[in-house]
Amino acid sequence: MKKLCYQTLKDQGYEGYLLENAPERVLQFGEGNFLRAFVDYFIDMMNEKAGFNSKVVLVQPIANHTGFSLADVINEQDGLYTLYLRGFENGRKVNDKRIISCVSRCLNVHSDYEQVMACAKNPDLRFIACNTTEAGIAYDPSCEFTQTPPSSYPAKLTQFLYRRYQAFGQETGKGFIILACELIDDNGKELEKCVLKYAKQWELGEDFIHWIEKENIFCSTLVDRIVTGYPRAEAAAINEANGYEDNLIDTGEIFGFWVIEGPQSLKEELPFAQAGLPVLITDNHKPYKQRKVRILNGAHTSMVLGAYLAGQDIVRDCMHDDTILKFMNKTIYDEIIPTLSLPKEDCMDFAAAVTERFKNPFIDHALLSISLNSTSKWRARVMPSLEGYVEKFHKLPKCITASFAFYIQFYHLGRELTDEGLTAVRPNGGSYVISDDRSVLEFYYQHRDSSVKDLVHAVCTNKDFWGRDLTEIPGFEEAVISILEDIQATGTYEEMKKCL
Protein backbone atom coordinates (compact mmCIF):
# COMPACT_ATOMS: atom_id res chain seq x y z
CA MET A 1 0.00 0.00 0.00
CA LYS A 2 1.37 3.42 -0.98
CA LYS A 3 2.08 6.06 1.65
CA LEU A 4 -0.18 9.09 1.83
CA CYS A 5 1.35 11.92 -0.20
CA TYR A 6 0.24 14.27 -2.97
CA GLN A 7 1.24 11.85 -5.72
CA THR A 8 -0.71 8.98 -4.15
CA LEU A 9 -3.83 11.15 -3.99
CA LYS A 10 -3.36 12.26 -7.61
CA ASP A 11 -3.02 8.64 -8.67
CA GLN A 12 -6.30 7.89 -6.85
CA GLY A 13 -8.05 10.81 -8.54
CA TYR A 14 -8.78 12.42 -5.18
CA GLU A 15 -11.31 15.25 -5.56
CA GLY A 16 -11.30 16.76 -2.07
CA TYR A 17 -9.72 20.06 -1.10
CA LEU A 18 -5.91 20.14 -1.15
CA LEU A 19 -3.46 23.05 -1.00
CA GLU A 20 -0.18 21.86 -2.49
CA ASN A 21 1.65 25.18 -2.81
CA ALA A 22 1.30 28.34 -0.72
CA PRO A 23 3.59 30.70 1.23
CA GLU A 24 4.69 29.60 4.68
CA ARG A 25 2.89 32.17 6.84
CA VAL A 26 2.64 30.16 10.06
CA LEU A 27 5.36 28.72 12.29
CA GLN A 28 4.12 26.21 14.84
CA PHE A 29 6.12 25.03 17.84
CA GLY A 30 4.63 21.61 18.48
CA GLU A 31 3.80 18.84 16.02
CA GLY A 32 1.64 16.67 18.25
CA ASN A 33 -1.88 15.36 17.90
CA PHE A 34 -3.61 18.27 19.61
CA LEU A 35 -2.25 21.09 17.45
CA ARG A 36 -2.75 19.06 14.29
CA ALA A 37 -6.42 18.39 15.17
CA PHE A 38 -7.08 21.93 16.38
CA VAL A 39 -4.93 24.80 15.10
CA ASP A 40 -3.97 23.14 11.82
CA TYR A 41 -7.56 22.08 11.21
CA PHE A 42 -8.72 25.70 11.59
CA ILE A 43 -5.98 26.92 9.26
CA ASP A 44 -6.85 24.26 6.70
CA MET A 45 -10.50 25.31 6.82
CA MET A 46 -9.54 28.98 6.40
CA ASN A 47 -7.47 28.03 3.39
CA GLU A 48 -10.46 26.36 1.74
CA LYS A 49 -13.30 28.60 2.86
CA ALA A 50 -11.69 32.04 3.19
CA GLY A 51 -8.66 32.09 0.87
CA PHE A 52 -6.16 32.25 3.74
CA ASN A 53 -3.59 30.58 1.43
CA SER A 54 -1.09 29.66 4.13
CA LYS A 55 1.25 26.79 4.80
CA VAL A 56 2.40 25.86 8.30
CA VAL A 57 5.99 24.96 9.19
CA LEU A 58 5.90 22.58 12.14
CA VAL A 59 8.74 22.62 14.65
CA GLN A 60 9.42 19.57 16.79
CA PRO A 61 10.69 21.21 20.00
CA ILE A 62 12.01 18.06 21.72
CA ALA A 63 15.26 16.33 20.85
CA ASN A 64 15.00 12.92 19.22
CA HIS A 65 16.68 10.33 21.44
CA THR A 66 14.65 7.26 20.48
CA GLY A 67 15.60 6.86 16.83
CA PHE A 68 11.97 7.55 15.83
CA SER A 69 11.38 10.99 14.36
CA LEU A 70 7.84 12.22 13.89
CA ALA A 71 9.30 15.02 11.74
CA ASP A 72 10.60 12.40 9.29
CA VAL A 73 7.17 10.75 9.07
CA ILE A 74 5.49 14.12 8.48
CA ASN A 75 7.93 15.01 5.72
CA GLU A 76 7.64 11.58 4.08
CA GLN A 77 3.88 12.22 3.78
CA ASP A 78 4.33 15.74 2.33
CA GLY A 79 2.81 17.10 5.54
CA LEU A 80 -0.51 15.39 4.74
CA TYR A 81 -2.56 13.47 7.29
CA THR A 82 -6.12 12.26 7.73
CA LEU A 83 -8.15 13.83 10.52
CA TYR A 84 -11.36 12.30 11.88
CA LEU A 85 -13.62 14.51 14.02
CA ARG A 86 -16.25 12.34 15.68
CA GLY A 87 -19.06 12.56 18.19
CA PHE A 88 -22.58 13.89 18.65
CA GLU A 89 -23.64 17.20 17.12
CA ASN A 90 -27.19 18.52 17.35
CA GLY A 91 -28.37 15.08 18.41
CA ARG A 92 -26.86 13.15 15.53
CA LYS A 93 -23.80 10.94 15.30
CA VAL A 94 -20.99 12.54 13.27
CA ASN A 95 -17.81 11.05 11.81
CA ASP A 96 -16.17 13.66 9.60
CA LYS A 97 -13.05 12.82 7.62
CA ARG A 98 -10.70 15.44 6.18
CA ILE A 99 -7.22 15.30 4.66
CA ILE A 100 -5.29 18.22 6.15
CA SER A 101 -3.00 19.86 3.61
CA CYS A 102 -1.86 23.09 5.29
CA VAL A 103 1.43 21.65 6.62
CA SER A 104 4.45 22.20 4.36
CA ARG A 105 7.18 20.46 6.38
CA CYS A 106 8.40 19.65 9.86
CA LEU A 107 11.77 20.64 11.34
CA ASN A 108 13.41 19.51 14.56
CA VAL A 109 14.78 22.50 16.45
CA HIS A 110 17.73 20.41 17.67
CA SER A 111 18.87 18.73 14.45
CA ASP A 112 17.57 21.49 12.13
CA TYR A 113 18.31 24.53 14.30
CA GLU A 114 19.59 26.81 11.52
CA GLN A 115 16.72 25.84 9.22
CA VAL A 116 14.26 26.82 11.94
CA MET A 117 16.03 30.14 12.53
CA ALA A 118 16.15 30.78 8.78
CA CYS A 119 12.34 30.93 8.81
CA ALA A 120 12.71 34.28 10.62
CA LYS A 121 13.98 35.77 7.36
CA ASN A 122 10.84 34.73 5.44
CA PRO A 123 8.95 38.00 4.77
CA ASP A 124 5.65 36.10 4.42
CA LEU A 125 5.80 34.64 7.93
CA ARG A 126 3.27 36.38 10.19
CA PHE A 127 1.89 33.91 12.76
CA ILE A 128 3.42 31.74 15.46
CA ALA A 129 1.34 29.09 17.24
CA CYS A 130 2.59 26.97 20.10
CA ASN A 131 1.63 24.26 22.53
CA THR A 132 4.73 23.16 24.41
CA THR A 133 2.75 21.68 27.37
CA GLU A 134 1.98 23.40 30.66
CA ALA A 135 5.67 23.25 31.63
CA GLY A 136 6.74 24.80 28.33
CA ILE A 137 6.21 28.45 29.22
CA ALA A 138 8.83 28.82 31.92
CA TYR A 139 11.83 31.08 32.44
CA ASP A 140 15.09 29.20 32.96
CA PRO A 141 17.92 31.65 33.75
CA SER A 142 20.53 29.04 32.79
CA CYS A 143 19.59 29.41 29.11
CA GLU A 144 22.19 31.32 27.11
CA PHE A 145 21.92 33.26 23.87
CA THR A 146 24.77 31.27 22.32
CA GLN A 147 23.11 27.88 22.84
CA THR A 148 21.77 26.20 19.68
CA PRO A 149 19.17 25.69 20.95
CA PRO A 150 18.64 26.66 24.60
CA SER A 151 16.44 24.30 26.60
CA SER A 152 13.35 26.45 27.27
CA TYR A 153 10.77 27.30 24.63
CA PRO A 154 10.63 31.03 25.52
CA ALA A 155 14.43 31.18 25.09
CA LYS A 156 14.16 29.56 21.64
CA LEU A 157 11.42 32.03 20.72
CA THR A 158 13.54 34.97 21.89
CA GLN A 159 16.36 33.84 19.62
CA PHE A 160 13.90 33.54 16.74
CA LEU A 161 12.44 36.99 17.38
CA TYR A 162 15.95 38.48 17.47
CA ARG A 163 16.69 36.95 14.04
CA ARG A 164 13.45 38.51 12.82
CA TYR A 165 14.41 41.87 14.31
CA GLN A 166 17.80 41.74 12.61
CA ALA A 167 16.16 41.05 9.25
CA PHE A 168 13.09 43.35 9.43
CA GLY A 169 13.45 45.47 12.55
CA GLN A 170 13.26 48.70 10.58
CA GLU A 171 9.92 47.81 8.96
CA THR A 172 6.49 48.06 10.55
CA GLY A 173 4.14 45.09 10.35
CA LYS A 174 6.89 42.47 10.29
CA GLY A 175 6.46 41.28 13.85
CA PHE A 176 4.30 38.29 14.72
CA ILE A 177 0.85 37.43 15.98
CA ILE A 178 1.68 34.78 18.59
CA LEU A 179 -1.05 32.34 19.61
CA ALA A 180 -0.18 30.52 22.82
CA CYS A 181 -2.22 27.35 23.39
CA GLU A 182 -0.59 26.02 26.55
CA LEU A 183 -2.97 25.15 29.40
CA ILE A 184 -1.86 27.80 31.88
CA ASP A 185 -3.51 31.04 32.95
CA ASP A 186 -2.70 34.04 30.72
CA ASN A 187 -0.51 31.87 28.50
CA GLY A 188 0.28 34.63 26.00
CA LYS A 189 1.13 37.21 28.65
CA GLU A 190 3.30 34.73 30.54
CA LEU A 191 5.16 33.86 27.34
CA GLU A 192 5.79 37.54 26.64
CA LYS A 193 7.13 38.05 30.18
CA CYS A 194 9.63 35.21 29.69
CA VAL A 195 10.76 36.55 26.31
CA LEU A 196 11.34 40.04 27.75
CA LYS A 197 13.36 38.54 30.61
CA TYR A 198 15.65 36.78 28.14
CA ALA A 199 16.02 39.93 26.03
CA LYS A 200 17.21 41.78 29.13
CA GLN A 201 19.32 38.92 30.50
CA TRP A 202 21.10 38.53 27.19
CA GLU A 203 21.54 42.31 26.81
CA LEU A 204 20.01 42.38 23.33
CA GLY A 205 19.31 46.09 23.58
CA GLU A 206 16.46 48.48 24.35
CA ASP A 207 15.59 48.84 20.65
CA PHE A 208 14.93 45.10 20.41
CA ILE A 209 12.83 45.15 23.59
CA HIS A 210 10.81 48.07 22.18
CA TRP A 211 10.33 46.11 18.93
CA ILE A 212 9.08 43.05 20.83
CA GLU A 213 6.48 45.13 22.66
CA LYS A 214 5.39 47.31 19.72
CA GLU A 215 5.48 45.00 16.71
CA ASN A 216 4.37 41.66 18.22
CA ILE A 217 1.02 40.62 19.67
CA PHE A 218 1.18 37.90 22.31
CA CYS A 219 -2.33 36.44 22.47
CA SER A 220 -3.59 34.50 25.45
CA THR A 221 -5.99 31.85 24.22
CA LEU A 222 -8.41 29.21 25.49
CA VAL A 223 -8.51 25.97 23.50
CA ASP A 224 -11.29 23.43 23.85
CA ARG A 225 -11.35 20.12 21.99
CA ILE A 226 -10.73 16.59 23.22
CA VAL A 227 -8.15 15.05 20.89
CA THR A 228 -7.78 11.29 21.08
CA GLY A 229 -4.86 11.09 18.64
CA TYR A 230 -3.68 8.11 16.63
CA PRO A 231 -6.36 5.37 16.61
CA ARG A 232 -4.04 2.42 17.06
CA ALA A 233 -6.78 -0.22 17.20
CA GLU A 234 -8.51 1.12 14.09
CA ALA A 235 -5.53 2.27 12.00
CA ALA A 236 -5.17 -0.83 9.82
CA ALA A 237 -8.88 -0.86 8.91
CA ILE A 238 -8.87 2.89 8.24
CA ASN A 239 -5.84 2.61 5.93
CA GLU A 240 -7.41 -0.31 4.11
CA ALA A 241 -10.62 1.66 3.54
CA ASN A 242 -8.72 4.76 2.38
CA GLY A 243 -6.39 2.87 0.06
CA TYR A 244 -3.23 4.50 1.42
CA GLU A 245 -0.97 4.13 4.42
CA ASP A 246 -1.20 7.07 6.82
CA ASN A 247 1.03 6.89 9.87
CA LEU A 248 -0.23 10.26 11.12
CA ILE A 249 -3.98 9.61 11.41
CA ASP A 250 -5.41 11.94 14.05
CA THR A 251 -8.78 11.79 15.82
CA GLY A 252 -10.72 14.16 18.02
CA GLU A 253 -14.20 15.16 19.03
CA ILE A 254 -16.35 17.18 16.64
CA PHE A 255 -16.75 19.98 19.20
CA GLY A 256 -14.15 22.73 19.02
CA PHE A 257 -13.94 26.24 20.42
CA TRP A 258 -11.04 28.70 20.40
CA VAL A 259 -11.06 31.98 22.30
CA ILE A 260 -8.28 34.40 21.35
CA GLU A 261 -7.59 37.49 23.42
CA GLY A 262 -6.37 40.29 21.20
CA PRO A 263 -7.32 43.39 19.22
CA GLN A 264 -10.28 43.28 16.85
CA SER A 265 -7.83 43.90 13.99
CA LEU A 266 -6.98 40.19 14.22
CA LYS A 267 -10.30 39.47 12.50
CA GLU A 268 -8.92 41.03 9.32
CA GLU A 269 -5.78 38.92 9.32
CA LEU A 270 -7.32 35.68 10.57
CA PRO A 271 -10.56 35.09 8.63
CA PHE A 272 -12.08 32.57 11.03
CA ALA A 273 -15.54 34.14 10.72
CA GLN A 274 -15.52 33.97 6.90
CA ALA A 275 -14.71 30.26 7.19
CA GLY A 276 -17.59 29.72 9.65
CA LEU A 277 -15.29 28.51 12.42
CA PRO A 278 -16.04 28.50 16.18
CA VAL A 279 -13.38 31.05 17.07
CA LEU A 280 -14.02 34.10 19.22
CA ILE A 281 -11.67 37.10 19.23
CA THR A 282 -12.20 39.14 22.37
CA ASP A 283 -10.45 41.63 24.64
CA ASN A 284 -10.88 39.25 27.62
CA HIS A 285 -10.75 35.47 27.39
CA LYS A 286 -11.12 34.85 31.13
CA PRO A 287 -14.96 34.62 31.35
CA TYR A 288 -14.84 31.89 28.70
CA LYS A 289 -12.11 30.04 30.55
CA GLN A 290 -14.19 30.31 33.71
CA ARG A 291 -17.19 28.86 31.85
CA LYS A 292 -15.17 25.90 30.53
CA VAL A 293 -13.44 25.12 33.82
CA ARG A 294 -16.59 25.45 35.93
CA ILE A 295 -19.05 23.68 33.58
CA LEU A 296 -17.06 21.12 31.58
CA ASN A 297 -14.29 20.31 34.05
CA GLY A 298 -16.47 21.01 37.07
CA ALA A 299 -19.13 18.59 35.84
CA HIS A 300 -16.48 15.91 35.48
CA THR A 301 -14.96 16.45 38.90
CA SER A 302 -18.26 16.77 40.78
CA MET A 303 -19.81 13.70 39.17
CA VAL A 304 -17.16 11.06 38.40
CA LEU A 305 -16.08 9.99 41.89
CA GLY A 306 -19.65 9.36 43.03
CA ALA A 307 -20.46 7.62 39.74
CA TYR A 308 -17.38 5.41 40.01
CA LEU A 309 -18.28 4.35 43.54
CA ALA A 310 -21.80 3.62 42.20
CA GLY A 311 -20.34 1.09 39.76
CA GLN A 312 -19.82 3.09 36.56
CA ASP A 313 -16.53 3.12 34.61
CA ILE A 314 -17.02 5.26 31.47
CA VAL A 315 -18.34 8.83 31.14
CA ARG A 316 -20.61 7.89 28.22
CA ASP A 317 -22.34 5.19 30.24
CA CYS A 318 -23.05 7.71 33.00
CA MET A 319 -24.97 9.81 30.48
CA HIS A 320 -27.33 6.86 29.92
CA ASP A 321 -28.03 6.48 33.63
CA ASP A 322 -31.02 8.66 34.46
CA THR A 323 -30.01 9.37 38.06
CA ILE A 324 -26.38 10.27 37.34
CA LEU A 325 -27.35 12.39 34.33
CA LYS A 326 -29.96 14.30 36.34
CA PHE A 327 -27.47 14.81 39.17
CA MET A 328 -24.90 16.22 36.76
CA ASN A 329 -27.43 18.48 35.04
CA LYS A 330 -28.78 19.78 38.35
CA THR A 331 -25.21 20.56 39.40
CA ILE A 332 -24.55 22.46 36.17
CA TYR A 333 -27.84 24.29 35.60
CA ASP A 334 -28.92 24.99 39.19
CA GLU A 335 -25.62 25.41 41.03
CA ILE A 336 -22.80 26.30 38.61
CA ILE A 337 -24.37 28.47 35.89
CA PRO A 338 -25.93 30.94 38.39
CA THR A 339 -22.40 31.76 39.63
CA LEU A 340 -20.90 32.58 36.21
CA SER A 341 -20.35 36.02 34.70
CA LEU A 342 -21.32 35.26 31.09
CA PRO A 343 -24.99 35.54 30.02
CA LYS A 344 -27.12 32.62 31.20
CA GLU A 345 -28.15 31.68 27.65
CA ASP A 346 -24.50 31.39 26.53
CA CYS A 347 -23.74 29.17 29.52
CA MET A 348 -26.78 26.97 28.90
CA ASP A 349 -25.82 26.48 25.25
CA PHE A 350 -22.32 25.48 26.33
CA ALA A 351 -23.75 23.11 28.96
CA ALA A 352 -25.96 21.42 26.36
CA ALA A 353 -22.89 20.87 24.19
CA VAL A 354 -21.07 19.38 27.18
CA THR A 355 -23.74 16.71 27.59
CA GLU A 356 -23.42 15.80 23.91
CA ARG A 357 -19.64 15.66 24.28
CA PHE A 358 -19.90 13.33 27.26
CA LYS A 359 -22.12 11.01 25.16
CA ASN A 360 -19.47 10.71 22.43
CA PRO A 361 -19.66 7.09 21.19
CA PHE A 362 -16.08 7.25 19.87
CA ILE A 363 -14.39 8.12 23.18
CA ASP A 364 -14.12 5.70 26.11
CA HIS A 365 -13.32 8.31 28.77
CA ALA A 366 -12.55 6.36 31.94
CA LEU A 367 -13.80 7.79 35.22
CA LEU A 368 -10.68 6.53 36.96
CA SER A 369 -8.43 8.54 34.62
CA ILE A 370 -10.46 11.68 35.37
CA SER A 371 -10.00 10.97 39.09
CA LEU A 372 -6.26 11.71 38.96
CA ASN A 373 -5.31 14.55 41.31
CA SER A 374 -8.92 15.10 42.35
CA THR A 375 -7.93 17.25 45.33
CA SER A 376 -6.40 20.06 43.28
CA LYS A 377 -9.09 19.57 40.62
CA TRP A 378 -11.92 20.00 43.15
CA ARG A 379 -10.27 23.15 44.47
CA ALA A 380 -9.80 24.69 41.02
CA ARG A 381 -12.94 23.47 39.27
CA VAL A 382 -15.69 23.08 41.90
CA MET A 383 -14.81 25.12 44.97
CA PRO A 384 -15.29 28.50 43.22
CA SER A 385 -18.86 27.46 42.33
CA LEU A 386 -19.48 26.43 45.95
CA GLU A 387 -18.22 29.79 47.20
CA GLY A 388 -20.09 31.75 44.53
CA TYR A 389 -23.36 29.93 45.22
CA VAL A 390 -23.15 30.49 48.99
CA GLU A 391 -22.31 34.16 48.47
CA LYS A 392 -25.23 34.66 46.08
CA PHE A 393 -27.95 32.55 47.70
CA HIS A 394 -26.78 32.32 51.35
CA LYS A 395 -27.31 28.55 51.42
CA LEU A 396 -25.40 25.42 50.43
CA PRO A 397 -25.68 23.92 46.94
CA LYS A 398 -26.94 20.36 47.46
CA CYS A 399 -25.14 18.61 44.61
CA ILE A 400 -21.80 20.36 45.02
CA THR A 401 -21.85 19.66 48.77
CA ALA A 402 -22.61 16.01 48.01
CA SER A 403 -19.76 15.90 45.50
CA PHE A 404 -17.36 16.93 48.26
CA ALA A 405 -18.58 13.98 50.33
CA PHE A 406 -18.13 11.72 47.26
CA TYR A 407 -14.55 12.97 47.01
CA ILE A 408 -13.83 12.20 50.68
CA GLN A 409 -15.36 8.72 50.46
CA PHE A 410 -13.39 7.92 47.28
CA TYR A 411 -10.13 8.69 49.13
CA HIS A 412 -11.20 7.33 52.52
CA LEU A 413 -11.62 3.84 51.06
CA GLY A 414 -7.85 3.77 50.51
CA ARG A 415 -6.18 1.18 52.73
CA GLU A 416 -2.69 0.43 51.37
CA LEU A 417 -0.11 3.10 50.49
CA THR A 418 2.49 2.04 47.91
CA ASP A 419 4.77 3.73 45.39
CA GLU A 420 1.93 3.42 42.87
CA GLY A 421 -0.59 5.28 45.02
CA LEU A 422 -3.26 4.55 47.61
CA THR A 423 -5.03 1.27 46.92
CA ALA A 424 -8.72 1.18 47.77
CA VAL A 425 -11.50 -1.41 47.68
CA ARG A 426 -14.50 -0.53 45.54
CA PRO A 427 -17.97 -1.00 47.11
CA ASN A 428 -19.16 -3.38 44.37
CA GLY A 429 -15.93 -5.41 44.48
CA GLY A 430 -12.47 -5.06 43.01
CA SER A 431 -9.84 -2.48 43.82
CA TYR A 432 -8.65 0.84 42.42
CA VAL A 433 -5.58 3.01 42.87
CA ILE A 434 -5.95 6.63 43.98
CA SER A 435 -3.37 8.90 42.33
CA ASP A 436 -2.62 12.30 43.81
CA ASP A 437 0.20 14.31 45.38
CA ARG A 438 2.08 12.22 47.91
CA SER A 439 1.12 14.55 50.76
CA VAL A 440 -2.57 14.05 49.92
CA LEU A 441 -2.27 10.28 49.85
CA GLU A 442 -0.35 10.25 53.13
CA PHE A 443 -3.02 12.44 54.74
CA TYR A 444 -5.82 10.05 53.82
CA TYR A 445 -3.75 7.01 54.78
CA GLN A 446 -3.14 8.52 58.22
CA HIS A 447 -6.90 9.16 58.61
CA ARG A 448 -8.05 5.80 57.23
CA ASP A 449 -9.46 4.75 60.60
CA SER A 450 -10.83 8.14 61.64
CA SER A 451 -14.51 8.60 62.47
CA VAL A 452 -16.64 10.42 59.90
CA LYS A 453 -16.77 13.50 62.11
CA ASP A 454 -13.00 13.62 62.68
CA LEU A 455 -12.24 12.85 59.04
CA VAL A 456 -14.50 15.58 57.63
CA HIS A 457 -13.11 18.11 60.11
CA ALA A 458 -9.53 17.23 59.19
CA VAL A 459 -10.27 17.50 55.46
CA CYS A 460 -12.22 20.76 55.71
CA THR A 461 -9.56 22.47 57.85
CA ASN A 462 -6.64 21.40 55.66
CA LYS A 463 -5.59 24.76 54.22
CA ASP A 464 -2.87 23.11 52.14
CA PHE A 465 -5.63 21.40 50.17
CA TRP A 466 -8.08 24.28 49.80
CA GLY A 467 -6.18 27.47 50.49
CA ARG A 468 -8.68 28.22 53.26
CA ASP A 469 -10.63 26.65 56.11
CA LEU A 470 -13.86 25.25 54.65
CA THR A 471 -15.47 25.05 58.09
CA GLU A 472 -15.86 28.84 57.78
CA ILE A 473 -18.62 28.21 55.22
CA PRO A 474 -21.80 28.18 57.34
CA GLY A 475 -23.20 24.67 57.74
CA PHE A 476 -20.80 23.05 55.26
CA GLU A 477 -18.93 20.78 57.67
CA GLU A 478 -22.14 19.54 59.29
CA ALA A 479 -23.79 18.88 55.93
CA VAL A 480 -20.79 16.92 54.63
CA ILE A 481 -20.71 14.80 57.83
CA SER A 482 -24.40 13.95 57.41
CA ILE A 483 -24.01 13.08 53.70
CA LEU A 484 -20.88 10.99 54.27
CA GLU A 485 -22.65 8.98 56.99
CA ASP A 486 -25.49 8.31 54.55
CA ILE A 487 -23.04 7.32 51.82
CA GLN A 488 -21.36 4.81 54.10
CA ALA A 489 -24.79 3.36 54.91
CA THR A 490 -26.46 3.30 51.49
CA GLY A 491 -23.91 4.38 48.84
CA THR A 492 -23.32 7.32 46.50
CA TYR A 493 -26.09 6.38 44.06
CA GLU A 494 -28.81 6.76 46.69
CA GLU A 495 -27.26 10.08 47.73
CA MET A 496 -27.49 11.34 44.14
CA LYS A 497 -31.21 10.47 44.17
CA LYS A 498 -31.71 12.55 47.33
CA CYS A 499 -30.24 15.58 45.57
CA LEU A 500 -32.81 15.50 42.77
Automatic annotation (TrEMBL):
Keywords: NAD, Oxidoreductase. InterPro entries: 6-PGluconate_DH-like_C_sf, 6PGD_dom2, Mannitol_DH_C, Mannitol_DH_N, NAD(P)-bd_dom_sf. Residues 25-270 form the Mannitol dehydrogenase N-terminal domain. It catalyses: D-mannitol 1-phosphate + NAD(+) = beta-D-fructose 6-phosphate + NADH + H(+). This is Tagaturonate reductase. Gene3D superfamilies: N-(1-d-carboxylethyl)-l-norvaline Dehydrogenase, domain 2, NAD(P)-binding Rossmann-like Domain. GO terms for biological process: D-galacturonate catabolic process; mannitol catabolic process. It holds the Pfam family Mannitol_dh_C. One of its GO terms (molecular function) is mannitol-1-phosphate 5-dehydrogenase activity. One of its GO terms (cellular component) is cytosol. Residues 286-487 form the Mannitol dehydrogenase C-terminal domain.
